[in-house]
Design brief:
The structure holds two protein chains of two kinds.
Chain A (H helix, E strand, L loop, with lengths): L13 H17 L2 H5 L1 E2 L2 E2 H22 L26 H8 L1
Antiparallel strand pairs in A: 1-2
Chain B lengths: L4 H23 L6 H6 L6 H12 L2 H14 L1 H28 L5 H9 L4 H32 L3 H49 L3 H11 L11 H17 L1 H9 L3 H34 L10 H9 L2 H38 L5 H23 L6 H25 L5 H21 L7 H19 L9 H6 L16
Helix pairs in contact in B: 1-8, 1-14, 3-8, 3-11, 3-12, 3-14, 4-5, 4-7, 4-12, 4-14, 5-10, 5-12, 6-7, 6-16, 7-8, 7-14, 7-15, 7-16, 7-17, 8-12, 8-14, 8-15, 9-12, 10-16, 11-12, 11-14, 12-13, 14-15, 16-17, 16-18, 17-18
Classes of the chains: A mainly alpha, B mainly alpha.
């Protein structure tokens, strides 16, 4: 019997994909030669923008933490021998219900 | 009272408390397995883990080395490090934390082992970890030595030995539980000192804007980007954005957390505390130090924070701050020593001798922690200058080696062991060639090494056979839920 091969990527939550794009754009705007050269009141623009990157990163992972996850049934690989979801401590009741749907 | 007596008493008290916490943590041990020793049993809650993550990551380099770079080369360059750190946390939370936790492994090399099942890879990765973490530990110990020299008035070497004995003891004796509990306590101490010194810095000037303007007027290059070239900014940012995601002493906290969400919440708290520390220390504290010194070049820029403490704080705050710097050094070094011991005894020996009994492996981990502790202590007797650059270079090598094997290994089903090995070797070798054979700006090597690693990862993977779904079974389960003991199938020989 021929062994089944694995291809493609594992699925990623939509909001994480969107936030990843946002932070990549922010990094591109910040870490470029123009931001490096430009100054605002004697301070390099890149300095302030790096502070902004730090703040944005914190906001993003805080949002991600507070967002209630509902498991996407399409994300489950039907060929894998997955058992019923078990976890030592349930995250939240809402999340648990979402996973059972 | 002699100004040295109070700070010395506080520091001695602090060291004794760390030993006490180590003994207490040992008593909490339940199963006595390697997994419990290396992860603390996986039951660490949000606050303890969050402060522990902050303490482990905010090193002596953060408390002193970063301030040295800010003082000597401007706060923007060192903020590129820290911007990278913040992005690294995002990558960890979004792309790695949940999967690592669900894989039910104890160390980063163990993850590599279960994902790729390659003997060569499982020898290369622990060796790279041992070399890079070793350099990191040496850099931290220099800070401990400098503090002891200033505080206790004893030779630098003896200062390194005294703090070394304390953290080697509690790390080897109590494992991750002791490291986490001491880190929690150390994290509280550090953030307390950061806030207090920030307030003192603000009180010294007439508010943050006046303080900033005064420091800028004294040394304009402190706020511009002229000291370091653009490529160095980019390199510093990329080094830390990628290194944070593969640093064992941070990643192992995810394994130590009570559950996956607690792990992510802890990372969020750790990052929040780290950002506060960066802004306060790199801008407010260094700005006021600049005003105090008139911007003169210090013989050793890494001592900028010590100058601030000596000039602007009363002796009791100075004593607590010294203890906090010790805490920063010890919290990071202890966590890294644990990772070093695990990389050698648990991962490397476990690969070279697959039949090595679990009981013996468990006994070997603390022994290797003691041995590595002593070796790094010997290296720390004669360390190089500019700490942040030393350990950041080591982190560049670590990230160039591990970043793509880990990230692609987690998300790309097609990624196989040949691709992972090619990515690790090409990243490590190209980084070292660029570092030793070319005169590139500081930390810019990774700008070239990382893309090389990616090209090799993708190219070699596509030219070699795909992994089967059976080989990916554990990874596939980890993307859905926690991998449980009953999921384990008989392991195929490597």
């Amino acid at each position: 019997m021929k062994t089944k091969k694995a291809t493609g990527f594992y699925p990623l939550a939509r909001h994480r994909l969107v936030w990843s794009i946002v932070i990549i754009v922010a990094i591109l705007v910040t870490m470029n030669p123009y931001s490096y050269q430009l100054e605002f009141k004697g301070t390099a623009l890149i300095n302030w923008m790096l502070l902004g990157i730090m703040a944005l990163s914190f906001v993003i992972i805080l949002y991600d933490l507070l967002k209630v996850e509902v498991k996407d049934p399409a994300a489950v690989n039907e060929t894998s021998k997955t058992k019923e979801f078990k976890r030592e401590v349930p995250f939240t009741q809402i999340e648990k219900e979402g996973e059972m749907k | 009272m002699n100004i040295q007596i109070l700070p010395t008493s506080i520091t001695v008290l602090y060291l004794l408390l760390c030993i006490g916490i180590g003994i207490y943590a040992k008593r909490l041990e339940k199963s006595g397995t390697s997994h419990e020793y290396l992860t603390g049993g996986g039951g660490v809650g949000f606050w303890v883990n969050g402060f522990a993550i902050f303490a482990a990551f905010a090193t002596g380099g953060t408390m002193m080395g970063n301030m040295g770079v800010s003082y000597a080369g401007g706060w923007g360059y060192i903020m590129a490090y820290n911007g990278g750190v913040a992005v690294g946390y995002v990558i960890t939370v979004f792309y790695l934390a949940k999967i690592f936790r669900n894989m039910s492994v104890s160390t980063v090399p163990e993850f590599i082992k279960v994902r790729f099942n390659s003997k060569l890879l499982n020898i290369v990765i622990p060796i790279v970890l041992i070399l890079t973490l070793g350099a990191y530990v040496v850099a931290q110990m220099k800070i401990g030595g400098l503090i002891g020299e200033r505080l206790l008035g004893i030779p630098y070497t003896w200062s390194v030995v005294i703090i070394g004995i304390v953290y080697i003891f509690y790390t080897a004796y109590g494992g991750m539980k002791a490291v986490t509990l001491t880190d929690f306590f150390q994290g509280l101490l550090m953030i307390g000192v950061v806030i207090v010194t920030g307030i003192i810095a603000l009180m010294y000037g007439s508010g943050p804007i006046d303080l900033y303007s005064a420091a800028q007027a004294i040394k304009p290059s402190w706020t511009t980007s002229e000291t370091y070239p653009y490529i160095a900014y980019l390199g510093a940012f990329i080094v830390w954005a990628t290194a944070v995601t593969v640093l064992p002493h941070t990643v192992m906290r995810i394994f130590a957390a009570k559950d996956e969400k607690t792990g992510r919440a802890s990372l969020t708290l750790g990052l929040g505390l780290y950002i506060v520390t960066c802004v306060v220390t790199l801008i407010l504290v260094v700005g006021s130090t600049m005003v105090v010194t008139g911007g003169i070049a210090l013989p050793d820029a890494d001592t900028a924070f010590l100058v601030f403490l000596e000039e602007l704080t009363p002796s009791w705050i100075e004593g607590i701050a010294f203890a906090a710097i010790f805490a920063a050094v010890m919290s990071s070094v202890s966590a890294m020593l644990l990772a070093l011991g695990a990389a050698f005894a648990y991962d490397l020996i476990g690969t070279v001798k697959p039949d090595y009994p679990e009981e013996k492996k468990r006994k070997l981990v603390p022994i290797s922690i003691v041995v590595f502790g002593i070796i790094t202590m010997l290296f720390a007797f004669n360390p190089p200058a500019l700490l942040s650059l030393l350990y950041s270079a080591a982190m560049g090598l670590l990230a160039s080696t591990l970043f793509f094997p880990l990230l692609l290994g987690v998300w790309w089903k097609r990624m196989n062991k040949e691709g992972a090995l090619a990515a690790a070797l090409s990243g490590a070798i190209s980084y070292m060639i660029l570092f030793f054979a070319f005169d590139l700006p500081a930390l810019s090597e990774i700008v070239y090494a990382l893309p090389i690693s990616l090209v090799f990862a993708v190219g070699v993977t596509l030219l070699t056979p795909e992994p089967t779904e059976k080989e990916l079974r554990r990874m596939t389960i980890a993307h859905q839920r926690e991998f449980l003991p009953e999921d384990i199938e008989p392991v195929e020989p490597i």
